[in-house]
Structures are given as structure tokens and as C-alpha cells.
Amino acid sequence: MSRRSRALAFVLAATVAAAAAAAIADGYGARVARGYGELRPVVVARVGFEAGEAIDPRMAAELEVRRIPARFLPPGALQDPAAAIGLIPGTAIPAGSYLLASQLHPPHVDAGAGLGRGRHPVEISVSGAEALLVAGVQPVGESVDVVVTTEPTGSGPGRTYVAAAAVPLLALAPGAVGMAAEGTAAATLGLSRRQALRLIAAESSARRVTLLSRG
After folding, report:
1. Strand runs (DSSP E) across the chain, as ranges?
2. Which residue among 20, 110, 176, 196 has the highest number of C-beta atoms inside a 10 angstrom radius?
3. Model confidence over 78-91: pLDDT tens digits?
4. pTM of the full predicted structure?
5. What residues have CB less than 8 Å from 186, skipping those under 6 apart?
6. Is residue 27 included in any domain, yes or no?
């Protein structure tokens, strides 16, 4: 057999081996899904993070997404690395650990400073907060509009309106399921008493409460 023929045979054998390995991996993944349920994404720390050290955008490369069976997903596990950017670990997070919402908190904000007379810090649950993180930084300190979408009444559509305009965002933290597309976040806002009562009522009855950046 010539040198050229041996080289072609080697390439062919390598291709067949790679295809066989891929088929075995796919089959294993399918067996795992059948045996343990649907696979879900979870954020894993590639390196250790110190307590009190903010996770800034430069550290995004140290976070990776893996897929594990839903039955093994820890409560409050983050599903998107962007949800961790700007947050601070309350305790040290070892390399290889899942990132949990309960481990992280936003930077300390003096909630009473600079709010102005008649405003108070109020926490509400909001949807779609991941849109505020697309720049890779925490939007704390910005002014936001709070938009409420009501449930449909009868045959008519729901109503969407600005329930509180240009209010300061004091803190933003992942909710129980992280800031995934369908998840919620806990937002602390500087509100007047009237705005607070309106939003607390909307939080319990509206279909969706969303923050819209004014920046």
C-alpha cells in the first residue's frame, strides 16, 4: 500500500471513529433524558469566587452553562450567566459549584439616601428583568418605568400602562428561578406611598409587571 493510500485509510478510520463516538454520546444523552427527565441549563463556576467580590463582566468567561436532568437542578439555580453579573457572593463559591440565587446579592445600596421626601424602598416581583442586563452590568441606580399588563377581561385584551414613571431602581436580584426568560426578579424601587399601593395591588392581580429602562 502506498503512503498516500495509507494516509487516506487513516483519515477514513478517524472519521468513522469520530462518528461512532458522537453516536455513542448522543445515545447516552438520550438514555439520560429518558431515565432522569428533561435536561435543563445550569450555571457553573469554572473558578472559585471569593465572598464579597462582585462578579463583573470580565469574569463572564469563568461561568459556563451545563445541562443536567431537571430532577437534579438545585432550587434557585441560575440558568443564564448574565444573571450573575454585578452580584456579590455572600459566601465563597468553590470551582465547579452551581450558582444559586440565594448565594448572591446586589451591591449594598443605601436605600434611604437620595430618594427624596415621601419616597420609600419597596420590593416587588417583576418579569423580564434579564433585558436590563444585556449590557453585562447591574442597572442599579438608574431610573425605570414600571409597566403593568393586566389580565384580559371578557373577550377584550388586557391593558398595558405605566404604573410608576421614572422611579429609582435601588436593587435587582434573581427570583426563585433566576432571571431566565420566563422567570422573575426581585426589584427594590424608590416609590411614593401611592405608587407602592398601586404596584402591590398590581403584583397580585396583573399578568405581568415589567421594568423599562429610561437610559
Report:
1. 39-45, 63-69, 88-89, 104-105, 119-127, 143-149, 160-174, 184-192, 208-213
2. 196
3. 888 888 887 888 88
4. 0.49
5. 123, 124, 125, 126, 171, 172, 173, 174, 175
6. no
